[in-house]
Write a structure and sequence with these properties.
It contains four helices and six strands, in the order αβαααβββββ. The chain is of the alpha+beta class. The strands form two sheets. It has a three-stranded antiparallel beta sheet, with no helix packed on it. Keywords: Chondrogenesis, Developmental protein, Differentiation, Disulfide bond, Secreted, Signal.
Length: 210
């Protein structure tokens, strides 16, 4: 997977009395997805106030970047089936072209002569054990992001996805969604806070790999 260019800027949200940075504005660029939780400054003084959370104003500021499929202002409902349910349903997904063209049998040996129905069952069994779906779940980013909730993707990694075992489902592609981040500079009565746009990477495809 190519390096993520989304989370480029690392800034300090606040400086404690000793002058050392307390935290970064958002995660550093990384090939490791999903994004790890940010360690936020615990002082509520760095939270947006009620007047800063006007939905109409924030929707206008975010503009066309607002994607209701992946972001929500209020607490959303379930985004996906559980990992176990998703794993059970993998075999019902459409077989990919490369699997439909698969020749059953040893690489240099005779082909297995199977009827269409039996062959399809074998391929579906293989697909059920090797398919890597993206599992989505809603995540609360906290009051310092708007919209506050993001539908984040994960790869099913509870068991090996290869035959023989040894490979696991891992992210291979990602997309970025633009959110607003409440960012404060300075401290105490001298600080200045505002909403700034940030890009948040999301897993969009998983693949069985080493």
């Amino acid at each position: 997977m190519t390096a993520i260019r989304a989370l480029l800027l690392c800034l300090c949200l606040a400086l404690p009395a000793d002058g050392q940075p307390f935290l970064r504005l958002r995660p550093s660029p990384s090939d490791n997805l999903p994004v790890k939780d940010i360690v936020e400054h615990p002082d509520p003084e760095y939270d947006p106030k009620e007047q800063d959370l006007d939905e109409r104003t924030l929707r206008k500021k975010l503009g066309s970047h607002f994607d209701p499929s992946f972001m929500a202002v209020a607490v959303p409902g379930p985004a996906n089936a559980s990992g176990a349910a998703a794993a059970a349903g993998r075999g019902r997904a459409a077989l990919p072209a490369e699997l439909r063209r698969l020749e059953l049998g040893p690489p240099r040996g005779p082909r297995l002569r199977l009827g269409k129905k039996a062959r399809r069952k074998v391929l579906q069994w293989l697909w059920a054990h090797t398919h890597c779906p993206v599992l989505y779940a809603w995540k609360d980013l906290g009051v310092r992001f708007w919209p506050r909730y993001i539908k984040e993707g994960n790869c099913l990694a509870e068991k090996s996805c290869s035959l023989p075992e040894g490979m696991f489902c891992k992210p291979v592609k990602s997309v970025t969604k633009t959110f607003l981040r409440w960012h404060c500079q300075g401290w105490s009565s001298q600080k200045y806070c505002t909403w700034i746009p940030v890009q948040y990477p999301l897993i969009s495809e998983c693949k069985c790999s080493c």
